[in-house]
Amino acid sequence: MSATPFKNHSQESRTFTVRAVIAFAFVFIALLGLVSRFYYLQVMEHERYIALSDKNRIQLQPVAPTRGLIYDRNGVLLADNQPSYSVTLLKEQVKDLEGTLERLREIIPITDRQIQRFRKRLKQRRRPFESVPLRFRLTEDEIARISVNYHRLPGVRIEADLIRHYPYGKSLVHALGYVGRINERELQRVDATNYAATNYIGKLGIEKYYESTLHGEVGFQKVETNARGRVMRVLERTPPVPGQDLVLSLDLKLQQVTEKLLEGRRAAVVAIDPNDGGILALVSTPGYDPNMFVTGISSKDYGALRESDDLPLFNRALRGRYPPGSTVKPITALAAIDSGAVSPSFKVNDHGWYTLTKGGRKYRDWKKGGHGIVDINLALAQSCDVWFYSAGHKMGVDPMADYLGRFGFGSITSLDLPEATRGILPSREWKRAARNLPWYTGDSLNLSIGQGFLLATPMQLATATAVIANRGRWVQPRMLMGQYAEDEENGFKAAPMAYDYGKQKPEDVSLNHPEYWDIIIKGMVDVVHGPRGTARRSAQGVKYRFAGKTGTAQVVGIKQDEEYDAEKLAERLRDHALFVAFAPLDKPKIAVAVIVENGGGGSTTAAPIARKVMDAYLVGEDEVDETNFESLMGYDHD
Q1: DSSP symbol at 536
Q2: 605 secondary structure, DSSP code
Q3: Residue 465: left if φ>0, alpha if ψ -120 to 50, beta else—which one?
């Protein structure tokens, strides 16, 4: 049996000590490395990491400006901003998007179209943690139903927003235009930073033209967020600059009276102040409610508007191109005598037709038996076609095209109407380029009475009439009157506002014989006040003197040996009725152009409308007296 050796405590003690020293050294070195790293991160790299930390914790959010309001010339609010509540989704907080959408559809009505638009907006989202609207204009009941179901709907919010509201609906849509939700194409045309929080942009009319003025400037706020991106508090705020409030030259009462006069018709009226070019009324009927377009119109409603035979979406006042008919006769007569083609004493013997060659085609007068001996005054007052055929033949196309161009035909002379079109001013060069045909003498005859290739808009006719009222002095039509400002006495005023339209003012119409203005205007006065004027009935009981000119534009051609019979034609194939006028005669305050599609004679339909528009503006007759209105209608011609 072997003996058990004794333990060497001394050796074990030395071994333990060595191991402890090694372990301590290792721990010390590790601790030194850790302290060094702490020092490096917290002292040496402090600035870098504090910046990274703030980036995670602090976000810079854009704040949308409040859109400027729009008023009429009397301070009546035409375009307002109203609060609207929408249900939105924050994608970062929604775990099951499809499930959330289904639960929402169980709580409030949501159409497939709204879901489709939501998905499109979700793809177009411009930044993380940006809520995307699903449905707009929630009712109080719908808000309550969503609120009690918040626990089932993570990431769903109810948000308030200011949206555009047009209190007068379709009465002003063709004058103001409207705003709608901004799209990607529009974002590329504007300053993306300034529109960072903006959901709406002007689509048509004044809302579109003055978009930069109405929009304002975006603001910013620095907010503290948690790890999920929810805002905890606002640290700093740079408030947005609201858009400017604009005052338009429109007169709401005149606009509404005019709209009532045109009720049930396809028609347009433009009224201009000849003194400064301010547009007093711009009506195109039928119209539509612009409020439907602000947050998005349904496919059903848009389809009904687009497919309507009456074309409510079409702005007849600015884009309707019509043969102006006899309404341009004052200008073609002025061209004939001022160019020297005929003298002011020039007369014709009107048998009811005019021929270029013996036995050739007959260019008929509206009066079957003719007007007998006709001078320039009777030619204007009675709208004698034969006088103009003869003068147009002697003059040719060049002077006519020249003078018509001086009055704004064939060009866009308005300042802030983006939908305006230039119409057609025919000439030799135009016909060669457009039809690859030479200009014929018969074309000159048609042009002399406002037919043939000549096409003009109601805005152009009103503008030309204002130039005549000013005896050649040009004013450019515009909607903007100024910027809304407070006034101690009246509580409102339109402060002057500088705006660069980038358009040069047309040259004033300077005549070789300025005294010829008297001849032309006298003829227009006799249209309404003369014993044989075509629109003399429209001046019955008038409290002021005015000048006017009737017009009738053919829609379908009539054969040589046929007579025009409206009763035998479908309503949409009947002649258009036109009338232009300015008043009062001595110091004009309003120039008006009226067109009623398929309305028949200008004296029958258009002239009474123009008379009531002028009455409403000049003598304050705001109500349409149906009995008085009917009494003004009488058929002579044009």
Answers
A1: G
A2: I
A3: alpha
Separation CA 249–CA 475 (nearest Å)? 14
DSSP state of 161: E
**Please, what sign has the CA dihedral across residues 382, 384, 385, 390?**
negative
Query: What phi and psi, each to the nearest 5 degrees, are found at residue 95?
Result: -80, -40
CB contact at 8 A, 597 and 267: yes
Residue 471 token pair: 């005896």
**Gap between the Cα atoms of 143 and 137, Å rounded:** 10
Task: Give yes or no for a contact between 108 and 138, defined as CB atoms under 8 angstroms apart.
Answer: yes
Query: What does each C-alpha distance from 226 to 53, 92, 140, 154 come to in angstroms?
Result: 12, 13, 31, 16
Would you say the C-alpha torsion 406, 404, 455, 538 has a positive or negative sign?
A: positive
pLDDT the model gives residue 10: 78
């879901």: which residue's tokens?
115
Nearest to 542 by CA among 624, 632, 602: 632
Secondary structure in 3-state letters for 400-441: HHHHHHHCCCCCCCCCCCCCCCCCECCCHHHHHHHHCCCCCH
Question: For residue range 47-94, what is the model confidence (pLDDT) as tens digits?
Answer: 665 655 555 567 777 888 999 999 999 999 999 999 888 888 887 778
Cis peptide before 426 (omega within 30 of 0): no
Distance CA 467, CA 334 (A): 13
Q: Which tens digits make up the pLDDT trace of 516-534?
A: 999 999 999 999 999 989 9
pLDDT at 129: 66
To the query of whether residue 326 is one of the catalytic residues in this protein, the response is: yes
First to last CA, the chain: 149
Which amino acid, 213? T
Q: How confident is the model at residue 296 (pLDDT cuts 50, 70, 90)?
A: confident
What is the DSSP annotation of 539-579? GTT-SS--EEEEEEE-SS---TT----GGGS-GGGSPEEEE
Could you report the per-residue pLDDT of 408-465, keeping only the tens digit for each? 999 999 999 999 999 999 999 999 999 999 999 999 999 999 999 999 999 999 999 9
Beta bridge partners of 322: 456
Looking at residue 51, its amino acid is: A
Strand spans (E) along 166-230: 179-181, 200-202, 219-225
* 579 has pLDDT over 50: yes
Catalytic residue among 131, 249, 284, 326: 326
* pLDDT confidence band for 159 (50 / 70 / 90): confident
